[in-house]
Each structure stands twice: as C-alpha cells, then as structure tokens.
Amino acid sequence: MKIKIFMLLTPIIIGIFVIGYIFSSSNQLENNVTLSDKSEKIKLDIKSLFNIYGFEENLEIKNGKKVWNNVHFELNPENTELYEKLNYQLSEKTIVIYPIFTAAAYSEPGFYTYFREECDEKCLTIELQKEYAPDFTSSGNGFQVLKLLGYEIISDIDVDQDPTILEKYDKVILLHNEYVTKKEFDAITTHSNVLYLYPNALYAEVKIDYDTNLLILQRGHNFPESHIRNGFDWKFDNSPLEYDMDCQEMGFDKIDNGWMLNCYPERPIHQSKVLLNMIKEF
Predict the structure, then answer these.
(1) How far, in Å, CA of 107 to CA of 113, rounded?
(2) Helix residue spans in the chain (DSSP H)
(3) Worst-scoring range by mean pLDDT, 10-19, 48-57, 155-164, 226-235?
(4) What is the Cα–Cα distance from 136 to 140, expressed in whole angstroms?
(5) What's the rounded Cα separation, in Å, for the pair 275 and 7?
(6) Could you tell me if 52 and 75 are in contact, meaning their C-beta atoms sit under 8 angstroms apart?
(7) Which of 4, 109, 133, 177 sits most deeply, having the most CB atoms within 10 A of its CB?
(8) What share of the chain is helix, strand, coil (3-state, %, to 5)?
(9) How many whole angstroms separate alpha carbon 93 and alpha carbon 160?
(10) Dihedral angle at the C-alpha atoms of 270, 160, 134, 5, nearest 10 degrees?
(11) How far apart are CA 221 and CA 226, in angstroms?
C-alpha cells in the first residue's frame, strides 16, 4: 500500500547548525541550538513555511552554489494559523527520536574516516561529544521543524537506556537514525506505529559504553565483513531510497509496524504543509 504526495520543491543547499545535549536525571535531549554571535543574522531568501537565517561569516561557495552553515529556523508570524493546524498536541502521544549516534558516527575522525580507508579500525570507536552538527546527514532540518511545531523529542540514548519509554507513546517518529543499538532496534521494530521519516534508518548496529562514553560500530555498513549491509538483517531496510533527495514523487509505503517515506526529506520538510500534515495525521 502506498500513499503519494505530489509537489514542486525549491532546490536549496543548507549547511550545518550546532546542537548541544546533556545527560540529565530524565535523560532528556537538550534542544538548544547554538547560534553565531559574530555577526547579525541574515534572513535567507528560501521558499519555506518558516523563516530561515544564516550568518555572513558562515557563507561558502561550493560548485558555484551558496552553502549556508549554522542556519537557524524560526516560526514565521504570517503562518501562525497554519502552525496552529500543524502543531503537535500532547494528547496525541507522539515522540520523535533524535539521532545522536548517527551525528557521532559522521563526525571526523570517525566511522566515515574508516569507510574512506583513511583510518584503521580505531576510528570505529569514538567518544561521544557534548555538541554535534546535525547537518544534512543527521536530519538537522527535520529536527528543527518538528521542534518548532511542538513535538516532544528524545534521543537514541534515552531509548537505549530505557527501551520501554516508547510504550508510553501511540506514535514514534524516526529521523535519520542510521546507527542504533540492538536494544533500540528491538524497541522500535516491536512498536506498533512507527513513522520512518528518513530512508536508511536502523542500518547499522552500534554499542555504547556509558562508563567510558564510547560509541563502537558492531555490525553493518560492510563491517565486519564486506558483504554485510544492514547490521540487523532487517527485511524492511529501504536505504537505497536515501539518494532521492529531490522527492519529486514523494510517498509513504506501508510496512508491518508503520509507514516509510520513499525519499530523503530534508528539503520538503520545511516547505510542504501536505507532508507536515501527514506526519501529524498518521
């Protein structure tokens, strides 16, 4: 079964922003976006349901295109009525899982330093940091948009430390949670209503040592053997679809425990009220 969304998208390139997190008594993700204080923020001329700001010192030109690093999303007062329709309500019992482990995996040096054969297996063990740049690979746009719309957000760490936490919610929304622990994988795949918003979720197994704060790749992404793709041998792996970033034929496919989007939605998630409404209504 498939539900399709037809829309026209404005191609843009947005770079990284910085988010901090802390371990608290409730293990909640600290959703503070660190903004530049070196110059005045600039409102970007990008088609969006939100206001998007960048900073002059963070502008780069790559392949003839502007790339804004450390961008920041804010609500647009002109769209207040729309936000009221799209805002998450606590009564809906929905939770979003922020991909801290994936943000860590993409840090340098890290897993991808190893994958590029620029480092030996020592790069498959990395120390978790207090701040990460959840960029395009870590669903940074999606995180900011859902946060602005009031969704409750926890992290991989919360689920790994207490897998039963998901039982409190009627719906679980995944971002680009590519790297997860076995406990997290089991908790997500046994939940009855999961929205897999980004392809390539649940792709590789990691382990975290909380005594040393180390994250270690266990299985997947051609490790420890080159023929191993999905670290959990998951039959619903939809990783090839992550390369569709234009989302011109965007739609949701039904699987056993929820729905999967068929493209990588970093651009449409802040442009499409149809997509945001479907996220709310599923």
Answers:
(1) 9
(2) 80-86, 100-105, 111-115, 140-148, 156-161, 182-189, 273-281
(3) 10-19
(4) 6
(5) 10
(6) no
(7) 177
(8) 30, 25, 45
(9) 20
(10) -20
(11) 8
pLDDT of residue 118: 96
Interior angle at CA 31, CA 30 and CA 37, nearest 5: 110
- Span 132-186, pLDDT tens digits: 765 788 899 999 999 999 999 999 999 999 999 999 999 999 999 999 999 999 9
Q: Are 279 and 261 in contact (CB under 8 A)?
A: no
For residues 193 and 188, give the distance between their C-alpha atoms in angstroms, rounded to a whole number.
Answer: 9
Q: What is the DSSP letter of 268?
A: G
Tokens of 14: 């947005």
d(CA 95, CA 81): 23
Say what the pLDDT of residue 214 is: 97
60 near 69, Cβ under 8 Å? Answer: yes
Cα gap 80→155, rounded to integer Å: 28
Write the DSSP symbol of residue 14: B
**What pLDDT is stored for residue 150 in this prediction?**
94
Going by C-alpha positions, the residue among 140, 78, 73, 69 that lies closest to residue 103 is 140
Contacts of 211 (CB under 8 A, 6+ apart): none
Comparing CA positions, the residue from 143, 164, 161 lying closest to residue 152 is 143
Looking at residue 24, its pLDDT comes to 31
Quick: pLDDT tens for 98-123. Answer: 999 999 999 999 999 999 999 999 99
SS3 of 174, please? strand
Say how far apart CA 201 and CA 94 lie, in whole Å.
18
Q: What's the burial of 1, exposed, middle or buried (CB within 10 Å: 0-12/13-18/19+)?
A: exposed
